């Protein structure tokens, strides 16, 4: 039953129950769009698995945006086509898009409605090392698929010592440009302008950005904030079927000298500062949204002094 609590002395009105959930979480909006421009090796496969498991139950569509040749950016014409198609192509129900593509500013294209954005970041060197070993040993998601570096037993430490391109610190430059966007300078390793733009976009353009190291908390925040998509997600995640969907088969921790080598890189320094910035923002959102057991704190505002009576 929908209920409405009214305090006659102060004219405070608090929505509760189904009414609060419906009005505060857009359950009546049929063309609502959520975009997850996922960054490789940040736990994105596990997270997207939740979306596919919940889409029928929560009545929304899930679509994977597949960009040719695994490019991270689109041509200008494709940006325009994607923006128009995304906002004008209606399934008559909410839609969750995901794909490996850098941030796209939809306000540039005159679209009729703007999508809501989410993402996940990971400690940058951990992400890079995970990808390095993933190319050699694969993962438990598709264990029989032969990766392009299959059979290459060189460790990450040995790669760094040999100064090979694959483990060059410039290859860390991915999470900053993903949030910076499609501008050419976003993809210049170590660009301070790109770093500042990425921070601005994270705060102003994204609903919430989680961290791989706190995936459970990220799922809980989304369930509390967007139950139209994520109702039941925390319970599903805790069951374990989606919490570790893709795990690299072999990862060798780097040596201290390898860590020090990367920490002397300006690219690592900016990427790590960006990660720490994202982590602080997520911690702030989490503390205001969730109780210590990750349950939703619920509405923390009300209306009062309503006139005329």
TrEMBL record:
<keyword id="KW-0472">Membrane</keyword>
<dbReference type="GO" id="GO:0000139">
    <property type="term" value="C:Golgi membrane"/>
</dbReference>
<dbReference type="Pfam" id="PF03567">
    <property type="entry name" value="Sulfotransfer_2"/>
</dbReference>
<comment type="similarity">
    <text>Belongs to the sulfotransferase 3 family.</text>
</comment>
<dbReference type="InterPro" id="IPR005331">
    <property type="entry name" value="Sulfotransferase"/>
</dbReference>
<keyword id="KW-0333">Golgi apparatus</keyword>
<comment type="subunit">
    <text>Homotrimer.</text>
</comment>
<keyword id="KW-1015">Disulfide bond</keyword>
<dbReference type="GO" id="GO:0015012">
    <property type="term" value="P:heparan sulfate proteoglycan biosynthetic process"/>
</dbReference>
<dbReference type="InterPro" id="IPR007734">
    <property type="entry name" value="Heparan_SO4_2-O-STrfase"/>
</dbReference>
<keyword id="KW-1133">Transmembrane helix</keyword>
<protein>
    <submittedName>
        <fullName>EOG090X088H</fullName>
    </submittedName>
</protein>
<keyword id="KW-0812">Transmembrane</keyword>
<keyword id="KW-0808">Transferase</keyword>
<dbReference type="InterPro" id="IPR027417">
    <property type="entry name" value="P-loop_NTPase"/>
</dbReference>
<dbReference type="GO" id="GO:0004394">
    <property type="term" value="F:heparan sulfate 2-sulfotransferase activity"/>
</dbReference>
<keyword id="KW-0735">Signal-anchor</keyword>
<keyword id="KW-0325">Glycoprotein</keyword>
